[in-house]
Amino acid sequence: MKVTPADRTRKITYAIRDVVVEAQKLEKQGKKIIYLNVGDPLKYDFETPKHMVEAVSRSWKESSSYADSLGLLEARQAVAREAKRLGIPGVTEEDVVMTSGGSEGISMAIGALINKGENILLPKPGYPLYNAVVNYLDGEINEYELEEENEWQPDIEKMKKKINSKTRAIVIISPNNPTGAVYTKETIMKIIALAREHNLVIFSDETYDKLIFDDNFKFHAAGSLAGDVPVVTFNTLSKNYLCPGWRVGWLFFSGPMEKFSEYAEAVKQLARARLSISHPMQFAVKPALEGPQDHLKGLVAKLKARRDITYKRLNEIPGISCAKPRGSFYAFPKIELPIESDKKFVLDLLREEGVLFVFGSGFGQKEGTNHFRVVFAASEEALKEGYNRLERFIKKRF
Predict the structure, then answer these.
(1) What confidence tier does 23 reach under pLDDT thresholds 50, 70, 90?
(2) Whole-angstrom Cα distance, residue 343 to residue 172?
(3) Residues near 15 by beta carbon (within 8 Å), at least 6 away in sequence
(4) Which of 88, 180, 339, 377 is the most buried (most CB within 10 A)?
């Protein structure tokens, strides 16, 4: 008998990893690939801070057992203190759940909230995991568009029209993956007002909160502005603290707990069901959040220089335009050329020039537009060579 997969798996795609399969085939044929597709700074010229590595190394004797299902107490306490530093009131270790990277937290938070046929307002473009989880849970995809011509901020009036009787939450990703946008304080306040009006939860993905490049685009934690609106904040050590392979993230609840204590308990029950996350790696959380932050200055300076190269070069290439990324290490350029599809454009570029981006339709994009995502965490040399090859490809083809 042929074993067939569940119907719910048929809508699950993940463009970021899917394009790698084709690149690996070409590498086996001897082609050298410039990878500008995966948001892993350790694949480039960055290193995990030494004091975090040492903290994990010291932990082995006491960390080979299961961890507490909600997370190592000292890690949860450190996250609660981090919330206070961000201006989010009232968060204690009891409001924190340690997760296997940010991804598991996102999956658990959505899984504990929506029933079949219900929806969450998701940014478009946005991180594809959110869509994948909603699809897996037989929810409905309900996306609000980010406006490319307005620094990738959402149009709040259009957003409001997307809310219906089955909407349960609004997702904010700021700094944004894949666009590099940083939502302004005004934008976040308007989203909070929408959530208040319609009794919605806010899911605030703040994975890149310390990677901000421009003084006029400051990071604002949604929980610090929300007051009486329930907020679930997601974050991780992966990007700010350069250890994505360690799979250490967290979520925490803030706002009026009387409104969502039952929901918070449901998330914690899911955490208990998975037993625990990696025990040793949690010993890096307190040293990361409360130890030396020296690496951040150099990290942001390097990324800003690479952002500037990316923004300048992409806008110099005929047929390509790019809004300026304000945070994270992503750009989401528009392709303004007579192409068949952004996916074919990206794969043809890979095969002909050996440069790997991710096609924009993998993140969602406004109807009638085509984009690709760039990871500008790569070295300046790799970026310049990649953009030169992109320009050569376009001049040859168009």
Answers:
(1) confident
(2) 26
(3) 128, 358, 359, 361, 362, 363
(4) 180
pLDDT digits 0-9 by tens, 71-104: 999 999 999 999 999 999 999 999 999 999 999 9
For 48-69, the pLDDT digits (tens) are 999 999 999 999 888 888 899 9
H-helix or E-strand spanning residue 121 = strand 119-124
Within 8 A by CB and 6+ apart from 325, the residues are: 179, 180, 181, 213, 307, 310, 311, 331, 332, 376
Tell me which of 2 and 388 has the higher pLDDT: 388
pTM of the predicted structure, to 2 decimals: 0.94
Tokens at residue 27, please?
A: 């590498």
Rg of the chain over Cα atoms, rounded to whole angstroms, equals 21
- Provide the residue type at 92 as one letter: T
Q: Where are the alpha helices (DSSP H) in the chain?
A: 15-28, 50-58, 73-85, 101-111, 128-136, 156-162, 185-198, 222-226, 257-273, 285-290, 294-316, 342-353, 380-397
H helix and E strand count, the chain: 13, 15
Amino acid at 178: P
> What CA–CA distance (Å, rounded) separates 215 from 367?
32
Tens-digit pLDDT profile for residues 305-351: 999 999 999 999 999 999 999 999 999 999 999 999 999 999 999 99
